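User: My collaborator sent over this chain with a note saying "see what the structure looks like." That's all I know about it. Can you take a look?
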Amino acid sequence: MPISEEEIYSIMFTSLKHPVRRKILRMLANKPMPFMVMVEQLGVSTSHLTYHLESLGELVSKQDDGTYKLSTFGVATVSAMNGVEEAPQIEQKRRWKLELKWKAAFGALLIAVILLAGMATTQYTNINSLSESKSALSLQNKQLLSTGTGPDKVYNFLEYMTATDVRNYTVTLDSDVINYRSDFNVAEETIKYTLATVVTPQTSMDVNLRFRNNHFSRYDLILGESTPILISNVPSDLLQNVNLTLRNYKTYSGDAYVTPMINLLSTVTNTSTHTYIDGNMALQITNSAGTVTFYWMYYQEGIYFQSKGLMMTFQNNLLTVMTDGYFLFTIGSTSLAISQDQAISIAKNYVKTMSYQIQGQTYSGFKVVSGDPLSTQMVPHTRGNSVALIPYYFVELKLTAIYPSGYNEVGIGIYADTGQVSDANMLISSSET
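Assistant: Without extra context I'll predict from the sequence alone. Here is the result:
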């Protein structure tokens, strides 16, 4: 039965309310993406991504090659987002110098809290209470690592990486959230700014930044109807622009691993979709409808370690998305104890015996459609609370029946060094209406 207009609008506005779903829509607005690549870039579990894709309903469709893309309604939703996501002035606009003072005061307050906590521990005589206080103090110290980001570091990023002339903007800090990621053992800071032009304050753009242990991790530029005001003209040739941006990032970050990325880029002569490899560095270029993504990643023994990589997406020659996980993740193993065919066999056998809760009811006896799987991807994954990447197969299989909530597929994650099933998630294949 065709979905009604009222249902479409309900899904659209429900999606706009949730930040993860907005991120998914923005990501798919750039290009179609495989399930596990979205998991890696969003930093969520496979089950969480499954839940959000299910909630997006008819806004997202799954293609025959296993990638997800925006439906016609999804494209309309992104257009609506661009019109309604201009952040309200939830606090008085502050200039960079005032923000720096605020950050310094906030950092001093945290240091004072830690010092007081350290003094308080001397009052404990019970060994268990002392242990708990030490754990809390350790966590506070880890969180404090991120408070040094400061507006200067953000300003420098915008200047070096995007050539944005911040002097022509009134900058509002919308939010600054610090969390400790126990899975990666890092302090993570997520900062959101609104930049409104001084001449026409109603014209603005949003900048989202993420730092891990005070190191740049992610950048998102959300444009309204404006075009950024630049300090200088960027090269009109995209390859030259990417080269300049990458060299600027080397200056900004000081990371030595950027040099082989620059060297590999120098061998590229066009921006058509292609993969380049030089030693342990790979560069994948994807070009789709004016959006070009450059993805450098660690490569060893035929395995692409996507998480240990640096990605830049350019729309109409403008850097709109950038991520860097190269500094954080390590290589835990390159061992392939099982082949891709063996992984598919393990996944099919696992589905026969698995049970899964849907809407509070446990289901079992699942059957897989015979033949080849929908897709099989090698996407190295962490195991436990670690940043070490392990070879990992993600196998998507079609089920013979449709279950509540529309589940008709299953995704099985298998560590390739052991053949152990890591996780199983029910999925929904949707088609554009």
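A starting point for your reply to your collaborator: The two ends are 10 Å apart (CA to CA).
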